[in-house]
Design brief:
Blueprint (H helix, E strand, L loop, with lengths): L6 H5 L6 E5 L5 H13 L3 E3 L10 H11 L2 E6 L13 H11 L3 E6 L8 H4 L15 E2 L5 H12 L13 H15 L6 H15 L3 H14 L4 H14 L2 H14 L4 H13 L3 H14 L4 H13 L3 H14 L5 H12 L3 H14 L7 H13 L3 H14 L3 H16 L3 H14 L5 H15 L1
Parallel strand pairs: 1-2, 1-3, 3-4, 4-5
Helix pairs in contact: 3-4, 3-7, 8-9, 9-10, 10-11, 10-12, 12-13, 12-14, 13-14, 14-15, 15-16, 16-17, 17-18, 18-19, 19-20, 20-21, 21-22
Length: 450
């Protein structure tokens, strides 16, 4: 006789063995190693191994997030580089997993710590809850032990929320990616150790240390494209342009369709004053990644510096269309318009940039730019409100500059104590060698005496 199941037994959620692996392309070796370990243990895992290039990318990726019970996100310092961009794919995958109640497991790789300031300032807004999930540290030398703990502790939990079946398109794409990943060579500890050196190089602030770390990466993994790019950047910034170009050339030979490579080289060439070379590189980046708004913003900066302001404005417009949730490109376009004397156009762009992201840390810039225009137009109360917002988002006031400007407005509005307070803050933050430092000291002396 079969014993009927109780209502509690029927309602008990199942432990699923379906996993989505979310990662940044620079951490592909880690993602592949984790995928290989999970599939060897009988898990149905998915990650975008080759790169899904069709127009169905959004449908395929997000449907596979919703279709799988567990969501692993690989976290490294380099992985968070663009995470504050609302259109960033790593961000969107994480948001979708949290919104749909997946079992989210942060895998904390080399150099990653939720407590570091650089991490805390990036994981804000919709990403802030990620810090509260129970994460798992993973290091190369104890990789198998970490995978065992992942399976036994983090993936053995039942998921209450509904798992949505993927469409035929998304399911077929998953099978194709799994087939390609199945043919990949087993990831060795040496390769994962190279990844740890890469993250150390990424986090290093000393340029010589960056070169040392990326050189160690390449000793362990001579085909590491990102390490050549990182070392090339460091060489450029040290002033060793020939060495930098050689590294970029090697990276290009290894991966000729790497749009990030051309974007990165455009950045360092621009910094070095080679605007013609930078323009050529960013054209290649756009050819390879025509939907990446960063490329158009960067070309806008280069053209602006070359005096080609009209075409720069066109680039900022395209960047704004491609990333309709960010106000950055609108701010740059407003700045370009202001340089041409189109003050009304600039004011409109700054206002639109603020409307898109009123509380984003980067929005201090359009608030301050709009405040400057309003102050020039004698709309002092509105200018004061904008400086308040700029300082809320940027408490250092860019070395005190915003405090000085707000102090001038407060003085005109007869707010003597407020003006004194802001001038004092400016003096604490500003460079003493600044031409304005002595002037502010004199203004402060006059206010105190009045």
């Amino acid at each position: 006789m079969v014993t009927p199941k109780s209502s509690q037994e029927i309602a008990r959620p199942r432990v699923e063995k379906t996993v989505f692996i979310s990662y940044r392309r620079s951490n592909v070796a880690w993602a592949l190693a984790i995928y290989q370990s999970l599939t060897h243990s009988g898990y149905d895992a998915f990650f975008d191994y080759e790169g899904i290039g069709s127009g169905d990318f959004e449908q395929i990726i997000l449907e596979n997030v919703r279709a799988r019970a567990h969501f692993l996100v690989l976290l490294t310092p380099s992985a968070l580089e663009r995470i504050q961009d609302p259109g960033d794919w790593l961000r969107r995958e994480i948001e979708t997993a949290m919104e749909t109640g997946r079992n989210v497991v942060p895998l904390m790789l080399e150099g990653f710590d939720f407590g570091t300031p650089s991490v805390a300032e990036r994981l804000t807004g919709t990403l802030a809850p990620l810090k509260r999930y129970n994460g798992l540290p993973v290091v190369a030398s104890y990789f198998e032990a970490a995978m065992q703990r992942l399976r036994e502790k983090h993936l053995s939990v039942a998921v209450d929320s509904v798992v949505h079946p993927p469409s035929p398109i998304a399911a077929e794409a998953a099978r194709q990616q799994q087939a390609v990943a199945a043919d990949a060579p087993t990831v060795e500890e040496r390769t994962l150790t190279a990844e740890q050196w890469f993250e150390r190089g990424w986090e290093a602030t000393d340029l010589s240390e960056k070169v040392r770390c990326f050189t160690e990466v390449l000793r362990l993994n001579p085909a590491h494209v990102q390490a050549y790019i990182g070392r090339g950047q460091a060489h450029f910034r040290i002033g060793e342009q020939d060495a930098g170009l050689a590294d970029y050339e090697t990276a290009q030979n290894l991966d000729p369709n790497n749009g990030f490579l051309f974007w990165s080289r455009a950045i360092v060439r621009r910094e070095a004053g080679d605007l013609t070379g930078a323009l050529a590189d960013i054209a290649d980046a756009i050819r390879i990644q025509p939907q990446d708004h960063h490329n158009y913003s960067t070309r806008g900066h280069i053209r602006n510096e070359m005096g080609d302001v009209d075409n720069a404005i066109d680039d900022y417009t395209e960047a704004s269309h491609l990333n309709a949730t960010s106000g950055a490109a609108l701010f740059f376009r407003g700045d370009a318009k202001e340089s041409q004397g189109d003050i009304d156009g600039a004011l409109s762009d700054y206002t639109d940039a603020i409307a898109r992201q009123p509380d984003d840390p980067g929005s201090y810039a359009p608030y301050a730019a709009r405040a400057d225009i309003l102050a020039d137009r004698r709309e002092l109360e509105r200018a004061l409100a904008d400086y308040d917002q700029a300082l809320r988002l940027r408490p250092d006031g860019i070395a005190g500059i915003y405090f000085r400007r707000r102090a001038e407005i407060r003085a005109e509005l007869k707010d003597r104590n407020g003006a004194i307070e802001d001038y004092e803050r400016y003096l604490r933050l500003a460079d003493r060698s600044s031409d304005l430092y002595d002037d502010v000291q004199e203004r402060l002396r006059v206010l105190r005496a009045s």
